[in-house]
Design brief:
Shape of chain B: flat
Largest interface: A-B, 94 and 62 residues
Shape of chain A: globular
Number of strands of chain A: 14
Structural class of chain B: alpha+beta
Order of helices and strands of chain A: EEHEEEHEEHHEEHEEEEHE
Low-confidence stretches of chain A: none
Number of strands of chain B: 3
Oligomer: heterodimer
Strand content of chain B: 15-25%
Number of helices of chain A: 6
Radius of gyration of chain B: 19 Å
Mean pLDDT of chain A: 95
Order of helices and strands of chain B: EHEHE
Helix content of chain B: 10-25%
Distance between the termini of chain A: 55 Å
Low-confidence stretches of chain B: none
Chain lengths: ~250, ~80
């Protein structure tokens, strides 16, 4: 198994949980146990679009109970004898090895996963800024030698990149430090936000400079947040910004 | 079956509730963070090689960059 593995450094390790919210894409070689026509394969792949049931495989790090996973797309790329190359866009936690097994059962011939490459994790894609361990090690050595920090800046993204696919809420400078201390977001702190936020949606809260402040759960809709002048609009789930970067402009409730 | 949009297929649009200027004395735009902070709040789009586990690869990155902490976004085992 190879491919996209976003690796967070130091403080940024807090954002990796956000990457579980915005899907994965894989390219996979599935090996059929007997020959099946391409039309049949296409028809079966079509049946696995949408919400599927999946029991995690025997060697899994989670409890083996039947659960649902969303398949956004499942496209046949190529067949060569009993090898089937396909691309799948799916929810985090979808086991592609199990998907191959289940596709094989549905086809009636049996199948297993032969090879797997991850081509996307949320906003991180294969054809933009992907680096190998060799690249990392080489760039780091070059930086040590030349002290040219641009060598490292060029391949390291700000952690905010991880949040690109989540709905956003931008807040006032005066609301930032309260959230850093774990407070929830109240309506007066909101400056702008994305359309189509629904209650219980995961959202990313930013400063006006675009710095990530926290991951939060919306308590109400975009329409309601725009309209309301009082009350909480999002519950802070994970603080991403250290305290004290913005001034403390809130009073304790005592 | 109903088509479910992938998170990267959803179009979003910002709407403004109120206007205010941000004070340049506090914080930095993410791409303009001072170098030490830039690394500390950084994430790498790493191409995991075949063979070692996600955890091993992450540990290597940590060692190469002499970091205290590193974590990855989703084990890539199956």
């Amino acid at each position: 198994m190879t491919g996209v593995l976003p690796t967070a450094l130091e403080e940024a390790t807090k954002v990796v949980q956000a990457l579980l919210l915005t899907g994965k894409e894989y390219v996979c070689v599935m090996r059929l146990h007997s020959q099946v026509s391409e039309d049949q394969i296409k028809a079966i792949l079509g049946e696995f679009h949408g919400t599927i049931y999946q029991r995690p495989p025997v060697r899994a790090s989670v409890k083996r109970r039947l659960r649902t996973r969303k398949i956004y797309y499942l496209d046949l790329l190529e067949t060569d004898g009993r090898n089937v190359l396909f691309k799948v866009g799916c929810e985090a936690g979808t086991y592609v090895r199990k998907l191959c097994y289940d596709l094989g059962e549905a086809l009636g011939c049996g199948a297993h996963m032969q090879e797997l490459r991850r081509t996307r994790v949320g906003p991180f894609v294969e054809d933009e800024g992907l680096v190998t361990l060799h690249d990392v090690s080489y760039m780091f050595a070059q930086w040590k030698e030349t002290s040219d920090e641009n060598l490292l800046r060029k391949f390291i993204y700000p952690m905010e990149k991880s949040l690109e696919l989540l709905p956003r809420i931008y807040i006032r400078d005066s609301a930032v430090d309260a959230l850093c201390h774990g407070a929830h977001l109240a309506a007066p702190g909101v400056l702008s936000l994305d359309t189509a936020i629904k209650p219980n949606d995961a959202v990313a809260v930013f400063t006006q400079k675009g710095e990530a402040v926290a991951l939060a759960k919306a308590l109400t809709s975009t329409q309601e947040i725009l309209r309301t002048a009082h009350g909480l609009v999002a519950k802070t789930l994970r603080v991403l910004m250290p305290r004290g970067i913005y001034p403390k402009m809130w009073r304790s409730g005592l | 079956m109903q088509k479910i949009k992938a998170p990267w297929e959803i179009q979003r649009r910002l709407v403004v509730k109120a206007e205010e200027e941000t004070n340049p004395r506090f914080g930095h735009k993410p791409y303009e963070r001072p170098f030490q902070d830039y690394i500390k709040f950084g994430i790498i789009n790493l191409d995991k090689p075949a063979g070692p586990s996600s955890h091993e690869v992450t540990a290597w990155v940590k060692r190469i960059l002499s970091l205290e902490r590193a974590g990855h976004g989703g084990t890539l085992e199956t």
